[in-house]
Amino acid sequence: MIIGIGNDMESISRIEAVLNRRPNFLSTILTPEEMAAANKRSGKHYLEFVAGRFSAKEAYSKALGTGIGKAVSWHDMCILNDDMGRPVITVSGQKNELSVAITHSGDYVSTIVTIEKLSCFQKWSKKRWEKREK
């Protein structure tokens, strides 16, 4: 059962301007693991990565319904790519299933995050599927 959906859209050039004005912005919004992943990119891909993570964290806070602040901070959330390149969001203390989609087009990045409470059957089925993939 879906218990939260959040979306966000950001201008990549606006994020670039913030990075130029506030050098500590990057360490404010990204975890050390995300910063390491960002630093493996350059130019347009670097900016898309940073804007995408910012947007995804905003979308998660909207799905949670709290915004970023007391309930969840920037560093509570980490979005890294799996082996296939798909973004995966993890949030400290979050026990529900999370999904994130990040897309770029021109100067914009758009994200959607869902928070889903899995039934007992869904949890069992997921565990079985993960075992079959190994």
Give an overview in words:
There is one protein chain. This protein is an alpha+beta fold and 134 residues long. The chain has a single domain (2-133), classed as 4'-phosphopantetheinyl transferase domain (Ribosomal Protein L22, Chain A, Alpha-Beta Complex). 43% of the residues lie in helices and 28% in strands. It is built from five helices and five strands. It has helices at residues 12-21, 25-29, 32-38, 43-64, 120-133; strands spanning 2-11, 77-81, 87-91, 97-105, 108-116. The strands form two sheets. Strands 1-5-4 form a three-stranded antiparallel beta sheet. A hairpin with a 5-residue loop joins strand 2 (77-81) and strand 3 (87-91). The mean pLDDT is 91. It is found in: Cytoplasm.
Defining key terms:
134 residues, alpha+beta, Ribosomal Protein L22, Chain A, three-stranded antiparallel β-sheet, two-stranded antiparallel ribbon, 5 helices, 28% strand, globular
Write the layout of secondary structure elements.
Layout: E1 2-11, H1 12-21, H2 25-29, H3 32-38, H4 43-64, E2 77-81, E3 87-91, E4 97-105, E5 108-116, H5 120-133
Antiparallel strand pairs: 1-5, 2-3, 4-5
Helix pairs in contact: 1-4
Brief rundown of the structure:
This protein is α+β, with helices and mostly antiparallel strands and 134 residues long.
Q: Low-confidence stretches at least 5 residues in length (pLDDT < 50)?
A: none
Structural class: alpha+beta
Oligomerization category of the chains in this entry: single chain
Helix count, per DSSP?
5
Function: Transfers the 4'-phosphopantetheine moiety from coenzyme A to a Ser of acyl-carrier-protein.
Enzyme class: transferase
Subcellular location: Cytoplasm
Keywords: Cytoplasm, Fatty acid biosynthesis, Fatty acid metabolism, Lipid biosynthesis, Lipid metabolism, Magnesium, Metal-binding, Transferase
